[in-house]
Amino acid sequence: MKLKFLGTGTSQGVPVIGCTCEVCTSQNPKDNRFRSSVMISTEENKKILIDCGPDFRQQMLLNHENTVDVALITHEHNDHVIGLDDMRPLIFKSGKNMPIYCYPRVGHEIKNRFPYAFADERYPGAPAFDLHEIENEPFTVLDTEITPVEVIHYKISVFGYKFKNLAYITDAGFISDTEKEKLKNLDVLVLNCIRKFDPHPAHFILPDVIKLFEELKPKKLFLTHISHHLGLHNVEDKQLPAGMHLAYDGLEINF
């Protein structure tokens, strides 16, 4: 299987509109970050998208991706769902509704934001989704077993997702001991890391991630959901402990 980072940035992306810091004005493409999303390719080359934010269209075009078979949504914040309307060409091409797996709470929010996708009489150009509500129990799609990992983002529950010996977690500020058991001794762990300093009420910062790396002991840990406050990619990546890496848009990982 393969994971491709379609985006590794925060809700504002990088560069941030109007910012002239060294990261936002960097000429290094690795310092340009779309909103966080990944594409999982199964062993049969089926495509599982995790999150669909406002950059979805550009992410698909730039990465020469032309198929999504299933979408998993971590939570309902706009930088993770507002691109769902841009799935229309894929839905029209396949002639099938797009399956979306998410919390019941998240499914309710998707219906509120895209009511035209669920109307009894839909406009011909509207998208069409099939919502599948999931709980914190393993489930199977496209012959692939997926284990949700429940984390806390400020005051709401968010799902990370585990495939084989890889787990992807974004928008987390707390992970319970019970859920940490799912994350121990992985080959690959992906965790959000919004900045280096100053505690954040909803996200891990770098000292938190280093502590989790030492506790959970994955073979490799990749940082995502990165803001311009974390610093320049080529500088900060070299300063991380061995086995830790900054993810960047377009990076692919086989697992």
UniProtKB/TrEMBL annotation:
Pfam families cross-referenced by the UniProt entry: Lactamase_B_2
InterPro entries cross-referenced by the UniProt entry: Metallo-B-lactamas, RibonucZ/Hydroxyglut_hydro
The organism's place on the tree of life at top rank: Bacteria
SMART domains in UniProt: Lactamase_B (SM00849)
Domain Metallo-beta-lactamase, chain residue ranges per copy: 34-225
Protein name: Phosphoribosyl 1,2-cyclic phosphate phosphodiesterase
Lineage: Bacteria, Pseudomonadati, Bacteroidota, Flavobacteriia, Flavobacteriales
